[in-house]
Amino acid sequence: MGDYSHDSLGMKLEMGGDLLRRQFDPTAHDLDANFRLTRFADLKGRGCKVPQDVLNKLVGSLQQDYTSHDDQFMHMTIPRIGIGLDCSVTPLRHGGLCLVQTTDFFYPIVDDPYMMGKIACANVLSDLYAMGVIECDNMLMLLAVSTKMTEKERDVVIPLIMRGFKDSALEAGTSVTGGQSVVNPWCTIGGVASTVCNPNDYIVPDNAVVGDVLVLTKPLGTQVAVNAHQWLEQPERWNRIKLVVSEEDVRKAYHRAMDSMARLNRTASRLMHKYNAHGATDITGFGLLGHAQTLASHQKNEVSFVIHNLPVIAKMAAVAKACGNMFQLLQGHSAETSGGLLICLPREQAAAYCKDIEKQEGYQAWIIGIVEKGNRTARIIDKPRVIEVPAKE
Predict the structure, then answer these.
(1) Which pLDDT score is estimated for 71?
(2) Closest-CA residue to 110 (of 220, 291, 254)
(3) Are 196 and 222 in contact (CB under 8 A)?
(4) What is the pLDDT of residue 91?
(5) pLDDT at 58
(6) Cα separation, 370 vs 310, whole angstroms
(7) Among 26, 87, 200, 357, which residue has the least CB neighbours within 10 Å?
(8) Which of 347, 384, 369, 388 is closest to 292 using CA atoms?
């Protein structure tokens, strides 16, 4: 299906309609009532992510390969940043500017195509926001159409995904000017986000000091919520959790998860500058602990992160517990998609940060841990405090 230009993409995205503002109903589009977008992500037991230890080895070899080329940048005052971090930061040859870039894509995790597009775009942008970059100059869309889709399914679902991606980009103050589309056994959606900026426009995530606190800007439990929602149609799995959660609870959690994943981390990123953040990362596929460990490992100072509190979408901690060790939510290993920012903030600034973001967005942020002297690792205490989000209906 090849490359597409801005003009052709715009033509494909010119879809109006109230249908975008309502929950996706397959029958409203003349699709089978049992159509589920998430079925086009069936990996037959294979994981969607390269294991973190394997990825770290691959990243290490890349880092070594690039070290020999760094001499060409020695005359520049901006360092090369990127391997193993959320974004790559490349010094440009002109005017002391740098190019900040990131890319990501994944499989459908919700059944609403429009929301899936919004989530995919928010997830791509989140890497920029994690480094304090609040302006995105351009986005590209990466899209794989499943070979298992019928022509009718493709013609309904793909434009909705693209429209959701585009609308999220517009909300972020940027635009989608091109990309790449292919056919593939599985449906995938993602993109590339790029910006040109000054060095003071981004926050290198390596300045945590002893006494800082850790703030999280979105609740955990998105993977648990989307899985529990799928299990409503799988009696053998639903029977495992129905004693701890009702169908209504699951549907509420699913919609909360969708709204959370589609919400941009842009305000959270902007406030990092106001409150003198010492570094951040976004919580995605490797879970809270995996990303906290990566962030800790990049610190200049000899520090470690200790996490005491876990904000979790309401009822999802109970669901995770009922599933045994399947999710490992309270151990910090449960994958998240388009999660919040984990930010190292000066202790005296953190409460004001949380108050400010709630005032601006209407959503809470939480102080979840501390930075102490250590050997650049992260851990969650044995019995962390679970904070139900929301605390009450």
Answers:
(1) 44
(2) 254
(3) no
(4) 92
(5) 64
(6) 13
(7) 200
(8) 369
> pLDDT per residue over 193-235, tens digit each?
999 999 999 999 999 999 999 999 999 999 999 999 999 999 9
Share of the chain above pLDDT 90, in %: 80
- Are the beta carbons of 80 and 73 closer than 8 angstroms? yes
> The sheet that has 378-389: what strands, in order across it?
279-282, 341-345, 213-216, 366-373, 303-313, 378-389
Question: In the numeric block, which tokens belong to residue 23?
Answer: 């929950």
Burial of 239 (0-12, 13-18, 19+ CB in 10 A): exposed
187 part of the active site: no
Axis crossing angle, helix 247-262 with helix 113-130, rounded to the nearest 10 = 50
Instruction: Write out the two tokens for 256.
Output: 């909360």
Sheet containing 138-146: order of strands: 2-4, 176-184, 138-146, 188-197, 98-106, 88-91
Dist. CA 117–CA 159, nearest whole Å? 10
Confidence (pTM): 0.89
What per-residue confidence (pLDDT) applies to 80?
54
Catalytic hit among 48, 98, 121, 323: 48
| SS3 readout for the chain | CEEECHHHHHHHHCCCCHHHHCCCCHHHHCCCCCCCHHHHHCCCCCCCCCCHHHHHHHHHHHHHHHHCCHHHHCCCCCCCECCCCCCEEEECCCCCCEEEEEEEEECCCCCCHHHHHHHHHHHHHHHHHHCCCCCCCEEEEEEEEECCCCHHHHHHHHHHHHHHHHHHHHHCCCCEEEEEEEEECCCEEEEEEEEEECHHHCCCCCCCCCCCEEEECCCECHHHHHHHHHHCCCHHHHHHHCCCCCHHHHHHHHHHHHHHHHCCCHHHHHHHHHCCCCEEEECCCCHHHHHHHHHHHCCCCCEEEEEEEEEEECCHHHHHHHCCCCCCCCCCCCCCCCCCEEEEECHHHHHHHHHHHHHHHCCCCEEEEEEEECCCCEEEEEEEEEEEECCCC
pLDDT at 81: 59
| Rounded mean pLDDT, 343-368 | 98
Residue with tokens 């193993």, as numbered in its chain: 84
